[in-house]
Amino acid sequence: MAVPPVIPIAYEPKSRTESIGRYADGQFLASITYAFPEGYRPDDGWEQHKRLYTVLHTFDAEGRYRDSEIWSAGTWAEQQRAPDGPDSVLSRARAHLAKLLRSLPRRSYTNIAIRPFQRTVDGVLFGLVIREDEEEAWAELYPDRLAFAEPWNGQYDT
């Protein structure tokens, strides 16, 4: 079965798709995720290259990509030096995500359906990208690495 032009993504509370839904101007997909720049090969000092991002992608009602707000809260190394408290990298990322979500008028958390898109920031690929091999095709959310495939019911695999 071919990849559909609009990919369903199921809202699942307390999971990796807990920050998706609809708002007054369309649909949104938000997350907090660590990522390395494209082509980076981990070696000594990798902790300085692994960055934590707060991400908010917006789409129109038909799932066409509109824009992204992508912000780095810091590195894995910074998080390890100060893992707790309001100034930790993770706390800053969570606070920024909450602020972004509050900015969406009439926000509701629910299933969405969006079209593939790509954007690169800081050398990191963000988007919903079509992938295929000899046996199957799927859509993969980057850098979160969530894969969506048959039966195209919005459930993801990691």
Report the major sheet.
5 strands, antiparallel
Mean pLDDT: 94
Structural class: mainly beta
Sheet-strand content, in percent, reads 35-45%
So how many helices?
A: 2
Helix and strand layout, with pairings?
Layout: E1 7-9, E2 20-23, E3 26-35, E4 51-59, E5 65-75, H1 76-81, H2 89-102, E6 108-109, E7 112-114, E8 117-121, E9 124-132, E10 137-142, E11 146-148, E12 156-157
Antiparallel strand pairs: 1-7, 2-3, 2-6, 3-4, 4-5, 8-9, 9-10, 10-11, 11-12
At a glance:
This protein has helices at 76-81, 89-102, and strands at 7-9, 20-23, 26-35, 51-59, 65-75, 108-109, 112-114, 117-121, 124-132, 137-142, 146-148, 156-157. The protein has 158 residues and is mainly beta.
Please explain how this structure is put together.
The chain has about 160 residues and is mainly beta. The protein contains 2 helices and 12 strands. The chain has a 5-stranded antiparallel β-sheet with strand order 5-4-3-2-6. The chain is globular, with a radius of gyration of 16 Å. The model has no long low-confidence stretch (mean pLDDT about 95).
Keywords, please?
single chain; five-stranded antiparallel β-sheet; 158 residues
